[in-house]
Specification:
Distance between the termini: 36 Å
Oligomer: single chain
Number of domains: 1
Number of helices: 2
Largest sheet: 7 strands, mixed
Order of helices and strands: EEEEEHEEEEEEEEEEEHEEE
Number of strands: 19
Strand content: over 45%
Shape: globular
């Protein structure tokens, strides 16, 4: 990979300057990466190591630099570290965090390790409130895989918090909605000895289509979505969860004046 951070919906950087808001053509503007107020988006990241390096600090700051939430007491229960092929992987799987939920606003996560200088920084996120009480229109995509996909680790990634097992999975909240559907009927036939067509295969697919404007780092995560086997789509307006069999992604880079953003069309095919 060109960059060390993984192509996930909530990337973690070694340097704060890698955040999207500091890119030259983003003009300091924040992308509204949606996140619930009582948890974080799941994340994983790694660095080279042959021995476990303990997490020494885990905190949430506002984008102005003020400390908002100290999570040090939750490190042992909510973060998992493991060694894999000369790298230390660090997982947080989206479990509910203790304490008061975050008020609406823009934040970043900072994580420090014993003996390693400086912090690891998350991408900036926007806390929007509890799922069942907020009014932002969004769709939620949950996706994971049974086996690893390149450097993204899914095997042996579970974390148990308060008797609930959280496997690592990606979560993306997109501020959009399903614009329309395209039902599709697939039929395959073959001819018998009397030249009659016999149906040998038939399948009904319901295609759900949406469009959304996103930054480059999230575009990488969306493209990786197509490689995953387990995908679920939650339509916030109808509160429906739909099992997805395939996803098709089309991207279109917007002009430089559009703050380094891309227009993405997602087509979801359900499991009918």
């Amino acid at each position: 990979m060109i960059f060390s951070e993984l192509p996930l919906s909530f990337p973690i950087y070694k340097n704060q300057a890698f955040q999207n808001r500091f890119r030259k053509n983003c003009y300091g503007k924040e992308y509204k990466l949606l996140c619930p107020s009582d948890s974080l988006l799941p994340f994983q990241f790694y660095f080279d190591s042959n021995t476990i390096v303990p997490v020494s600090e885990w905190k949430i700051y506002s984008t102005s630099g003020s400390l908002v939430k100290d999570l040090n007491a939750s490190i042992a229960t909510h973060i998992k570290t493991s060694l894999r092929d000369g790298k230390q992987y660090n997982f947080y799987n989206g479990s509910t965090l203790p304490g008061t939920p975050l008020p609406c606003g823009y934040y970043e996560v900072r994580i420090a390790f014993t003996g390693i200088e400086g912090y690891y920084f998350s991408e900036v996120f926007y806390s929007f409130g509890k799922l069942k009480s907020q009014t932002t229109e969004f769709i939620k995509i949950i996706y994971r895989n049974e086996c690893n996909i390149g450097p993204i680790q899914y095997t042996d990634s579970e974390i148990t918090v308060d008797d609930t097992v959280y496997p690592f999975q990606n979560e993306i909240y997109l501020e959009t909605f399903i614009t329309h559907t395209e039902p599709l009927l697939e039929i395959e036939t073959e001819k018998d000895g009397f030249n009659n067509e016999l149906v040998t295969f038939s399948k009904f697919n319901n295609r759900l289509i949406t469009e959304v404007v996103i930054p480059d780092y999230l575009k990488s995560a969306i493209l990786m979505l197509q490689l995953h086997k387990s995908i679920a789509l939650i339509d916030q307006l109808d509160l429906r969860t739909i099992a997805i069999s395939r996803v098709f992604v089309k991207t279109q880079q917007l002009p430089e004046t559009s703050d380094c953003m891309s227009l993405v069309q997602l087509t979801f095919e359900d499991n009918c």
